[in-house]
TrEMBL record:
Organism in which the protein naturally occurs: Szabonella alba
Short name of one Pfam family: HpcH_HpaI
Family: Belongs to the HpcH/HpaI aldolase family.
HpcH/HpaI aldolase/citrate lyase domain segment(s): 10-218
Protein name: HpcH/HpaI aldolase/citrate lyase domain-containing protein
GO molecular function terms noted in the UniProt entry: catalytic activity; magnesium ion binding
Single biological process term from Gene Ontology: oxaloacetate metabolic process
PANTHER family cross-referenced by the UniProt entry: HPCH_HPAI ALDOLASE_CITRATE LYASE DOMAIN-CONTAINING PROTEIN (PTHR32308:SF0), LYASE BETA SUBUNIT, PUTATIVE (AFU_ORTHOLOGUE AFUA_4G13030)-RELATED (PTHR32308)
Amino acid sequence: MKKSKPARRSWLLVLTADDRKVQKAAECDADVLILDLSDSVPPDRKETARARIVDWFTHGHPFGNRQLVIKPNNLHSPWGPADLAAVAGLGAAGIYYPEPDSAEELQLVCNAMEAAGSEGELMALLETPRSFVNIKDLCTVRRVTTLCHAQGDLALNLGATLTDTRETLLYTASQTVLYARAYGLRSIDTILPSDLKNPALVADYIQTSKRLGFDSCSTFYAPHVPAINAAFTPAPDRVADAREIVAGYEAALADKRAAFVRGNGQWVTLHQYRQAQAVVALADQLT
């Protein structure tokens, strides 16, 4: 039987050099915690943060049964090679790799994980122009399971302006989802509203990500996590409806029909069936 993937609605970046942020992360309900060694860690604390993560995986960490991934520095940075050598075999759920410009670069990460005996996944953060020029090749690297639309750094690298209406990076957002769907990968959008503490603005931001087709959202601000989880958790009535669609379509197939019409007039084909299956699968993961 194929193993069900764990639910990954919300991803929280953990500022590993900040004790207060580590505690906040330990207390929040994010599905996945991203243990950061890159942007949030000042240069003079890089080695200390790296040693801390190694110690967490060796002697125990404060994050309970949460899924943990590690974000090293890029291999072209002064700290990247040492980061990868230290964390590749730690037993994290995956490596959350920033700024991959080419498939060859991602393959180096994959090779290091294999040499270390890791069973982890590889998540690619699309944040440079070359990430998108080479996106198809990135998707084909073994172990890559997830694409992240890392729009903060991407906007900086493009010279674009981030807006709450999202129009400046809709193209790259759609590309992320398109290629993720084409290659059977997961997709993450990043939450970067102009006012982090405005609940209505944050909720609208998350809903835009969901409408674009993203599977999940990431944030560095722990109070966003409940809103993300709520947005990506199907309501009970939707789950019940999806189960009815799945059962009805499978009964139709058994009767050698490729579609059927429900009592409410809804036409159900393979398209609606697959959508319903995804809802049921997520609901089952969350129970």
